């Protein structure tokens, strides 16, 4: 183990990286010099003030790695993007994707109690969604000693992870981060995949399709050593890198900057071989209420959510003895930031990864995708549904979207917006907002002409309070007056 020594910093742009999974051609991939300098400056400040033996950062935009940088050294050399670091709780995002794959295959429902699929759970009535969102009420940590610095052999059975009071809070009431909860999810994956180890399932179903060959359960050279930095002296102490056994799904994985950039692009855009963009968007949806004093942060299904300067970021931070990691994605800007460090504490990697995305967004706002017509053929009956509709006297616009989807938007500034997915039975299902999950139907009269839209008892008509329409409660027979 080589004590870290100073080296020259490293900074690069997209050259040599190319597109990661799901990337599209982008003539604006090359960052401007002032943006690159601002990114390197932020990384350098983070490494110097955080006193990290080494610190790496990257930005992914439009599915491409547009910038990487590093400071410090690993084994006496400047770290490069193929050096492994331990990524801690970023592992949970991988486990969550495995669980969502099981759901999408119909092998489980997120509403299922975990005891339906996994024997011996200390919270058999808690749902799979609650385990994903840390709202099962399970204890934050395992039975002692501290699992992150001790061998997994100390807890060889699932029951060994929990003490006599495994559940600290009622299930479903509030967010309470639980590392053992993800050990249960890893066991759930193994159970529903025929007893195969969860990391083998991950490699076959996720890592190999995405080209992430350097993400592994145990470190493979080249990899960084983990260090603790003395709080009051510029001295370092090596940290152990134990195999945590059954707790692996909570924070065992090692990865590289290059692999994590691929993971960030996937989390933003999806990949049909692994998980759809719609399921990933579901992961980013808040699943539990925020704590009383934490309205700027929350948790979805396996991902942390934070709001910074009116930007919603989704991802995760991770820490294990000797290592820190952070990955944030901004779906609206299609941008992500990744940071890796090989020290137990010091650099604020969560803020640093968020700042990397913010610097690019502020210096070089996203160029919108070019507008193009919908792919044909165009259904004239659907086109005839578009335009103004009225809920009572409140005007709305119905627009046609790709895949026969619809979007309903109020014109007056008050009202509820939603997007709708077309169903095979001729109805539409709300995707977001107040109408999420609700059914939109086109109602026709006896002659087959469109009469009105029914959105779960809300009647939308072509005119404001049309007397001929079935407006609930009826319309005054004298009509509008002055």
Automatic annotation (TrEMBL):
Residues 1-23 are annotated as: Disordered. Residues 46-355 form the Beta-lactamase-related domain. Residues 379-462 form the DUF7586 domain. It comes from the Bacteria. Transmembrane segments: none annotated. Residues 13-23 have a biased composition (Low complexity). This is Beta-lactamase family protein.
């Amino acid at each position: 183990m080589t004590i870290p020594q100073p080296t020259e910093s490293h900074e690069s742009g997209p050259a040599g990286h190319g597109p990661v999974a799901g990337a599209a051609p982008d003539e604006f991939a090359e960052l401007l010099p002032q943006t690159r300098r601002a990114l390197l400056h932020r990384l350098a400040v983070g490494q110097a003030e955080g006193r990290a033996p080494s610190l790496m950062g990257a930005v992914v935009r439009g599915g491409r790695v547009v910038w990487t940088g590093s400071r410090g050294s690993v084994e006496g050399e400047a770290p490069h993007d193929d050096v492994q670091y331990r990524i801690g709780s970023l592992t949970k995002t991988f486990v969550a994707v495995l669980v969502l794959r099981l759901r999408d295959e119909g092998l489980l429902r997120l509403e299922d109690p975990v005891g339906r699929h996994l024997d011996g759970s200390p919270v058999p009535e808690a749902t799979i969604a609650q385990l994903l969102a840390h709202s099962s009420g399970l204890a934050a940590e395992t039975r002692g000693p501290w699992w992150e610095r001790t061998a997994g052999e100390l807890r060889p059975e699932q029951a060994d992870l929990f003490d006599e009071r495994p559940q600290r809070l009622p299930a479903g009431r509030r967010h309470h981060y639980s590392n053992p909860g993800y050990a249960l999810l890893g066991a759930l994956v193994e159970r529903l995949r025929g007893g195969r180890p969860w990391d083998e399932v991950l490699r076959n179903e996720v890592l190999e399709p995405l080209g992430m060959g350097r993400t592994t359960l145990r470190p493979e050279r080249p990899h960084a050593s983990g260090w603790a930095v003395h709080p009051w002296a510029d001295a370092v102490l090596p940290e152990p890198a134990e195999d945590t056994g059954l707790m692996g799904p909570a924070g065992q994985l090692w990865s590289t900057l290059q692999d994590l950039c691929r993971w960030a692009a996937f989390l933003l855009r999806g990949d049909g071989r692994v998980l759809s963009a719609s399921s990933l968007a579901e992961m980013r949806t808040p699943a539990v209420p925020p704590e009383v004093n934490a309205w700027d942060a929350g948790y979805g299904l396996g991902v942390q959510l934070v709001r910074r300067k009116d930007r919603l970021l989704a991802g995760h931070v991770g820490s294990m003895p000797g290592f820190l990691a952070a990955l944030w994605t901004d779906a609206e800007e299609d941008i992500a930031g990744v940071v890796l460090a090989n020290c137990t504490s010091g650099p604020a990697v969560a803020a640093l990864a968020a700042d990397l995305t913010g610097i690019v967004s502020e210096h070089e706002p996203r160029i919108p995708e070019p507008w193009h017509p919908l792919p044909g053929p165009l259904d004239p009956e659907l086109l005839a549904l578009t335009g103004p509709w009225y809920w009572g006297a409140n005007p709305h616009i119905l627009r046609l979207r790709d895949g026969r989807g619809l979007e309903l938007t109020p014109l007056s500034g008050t009202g509820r917006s939603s997007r709708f997915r077309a169903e095979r039975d001729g109805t539409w299902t709300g995707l977001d907002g107040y109408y999420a999950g609700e059914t939109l139907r086109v109602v026709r009269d006896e002659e087959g002409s469109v009469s009105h839209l029914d959105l779960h008892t809300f009647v939308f008509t072509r005119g404001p309070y049309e007397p001929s329409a079935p407006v609930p409660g009826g319309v005054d027979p004298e009509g509008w007056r002055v």
